[in-house]
Amino acid sequence: MKSPIAAALCGAAVLALSATAPAIAQNYSTTALTAPKAGIAPAQGASIRRADAALDKLIAPNTRIERLATGFVFTEGPAWHRGELWFSDLRANKIYSITPQGKLTMQLDRAGGVASFDSRYFRGSNGIVTAPDGSLLVAQHSGHRIIKVDDKMQVTSFLDKFEGKALSSPNDMVYAQDGGLYFSDPPYFYADPVTGKGDPDKAPGKTQATNNVYHYKNGKLTAVIRDLPRPNGIGLSPDGKTMYVANTENPKTLWRYDVRPDGTVTNKRQFANWNSDSRVGLPDGVKVDTAGNIYASGPGGIRILNPQGKELGQILLPDDAANMAFGGADMKTLYITASSAIYRIDLATAGMKPMYSR
Q1: How far apart are CA 358 and CA 352, in angstroms?
Q2: DSSP 274-329
Q3: Phi then psi for 16, rounded to 5 degrees?
Q4: pLDDT of 249-264, one tens digit each?
């Protein structure tokens, strides 16, 4: 055992060295990240909060939450595709897939549209959705566009401009029953989460004056929502007549719109407000089940609301839950992308199957 005097001398030496030696800079590059690991296990620290007995029809009592993989930076944009969950690691510049049995595969590197970036920033890929021809559409933050990825993982540009100006950070996407594509375009590529300084809306290079929700059909791109500060997740009701849009911040809210036959929206009204909830998490992903119930990420985890806006309960997770997707042959598994991990939970009511999901 080292004597107190020796320990003090040793401590002084360490302090002296630390004062004179140059600091070792940490490498935050996406190329320096360690690989994530798969492994199905009970989700420690996860739980289900039941606010209404009606939740039992959606999630059976005593249902367990599982963690499928961990070691990511910030998982996002999940989609069920050909029997697997595909998702982005937004801050790692990669797209992965994972099977129900837990096999994890890195499907696309440099998924954000650039070779690398500082992994503290939100500059990779985000939302993923199956296109009518079976390929995938992927939202790219650094590329400021939506790309199409075919079965051979070949990439082509799909949408990159509105009114002749570059998109900001295409985020979430959903196809309507008539084949129209909706997607949100907040400014998160331009945000500085490291210093918290600067207004992303006024950042150099940002060309869109507003942060829009777009509708694309028959070659025509239209901004159908222009007045939300941070539009993010988008969901459609089973009949396609109602749209739900999450506003991530200022304020933390969920909005509801009526969808017109031409794809435009009207009758905006607030559906939920979580601005006073200080827990970790923000309004982000939105999904709707076959009964019209809304699953929305927010402070604390995934909130579940009925079509009238009553909160039925919440899936509480130890990680920041960003988004989710229904999966499985019967769409009765909810997969959740939550920061460093992927979770899942079995459902009693099926989720809406995305239009072109295969």
Answers
A1: 13
A2: -TT--SS--S--EEEBTT--EEEEETTEEEEE-TTS-EEEEEE-SS-EEEEEEEST
A3: -65, -45
A4: 999 999 999 999 999 9
Q: What is the token pair recorded at 307?
A: 């079509």
| Cut 0.85: pTM above it | yes
pLDDT at 23: 54
Cα radius of gyration rounded to whole Å, the chain: 22
Contact by Cβ (8 Å): 257, 240: no
Local structure of 31: helix, strand or coil? helix
pLDDT of 309 above 60 = yes
Position 140 confidence tier, pLDDT thresholds 50, 70, 90: very high
Q: For 220-237, how does the pLDDT look when each residue is reduced to its tens digit (9 = 90+)?
A: 999 999 999 999 999 999
Cis peptide before 186 (omega within 30 of 0): no
Sheet of 173-175, strands arranged across: 173-175, 181-184, 213-217, 220-225
Q: Do residues 161 and 214 lie in contact, with contact meaning Cβ atoms separated by under 8 Å?
A: no
Report the C-alpha gap between 312 and 296 in whole angstroms.
12
Residue 108 to residue 228: CA distance in whole angstroms: 32
- What CA–CA distances, in Å, run from 135 to 82, 155, 175, 331? 11, 10, 13, 20
SS (H, E, C) 141-166: CCCCEEEEECCCCCEEEEECEECCEE
Tokens 């490291």 sit at which residue? 194
Q: Are 208 and 168 in contact (CB under 8 A)?
A: yes
Which CATH class, in words, describes the domain spanning 38-346?
mainly beta
Q: Strands across the sheet with 125-130, in order?
A: 125-130, 136-140, 145-149, 155-159
Least Cα distance to 184 among 251, 232, 253 occurs for: 232
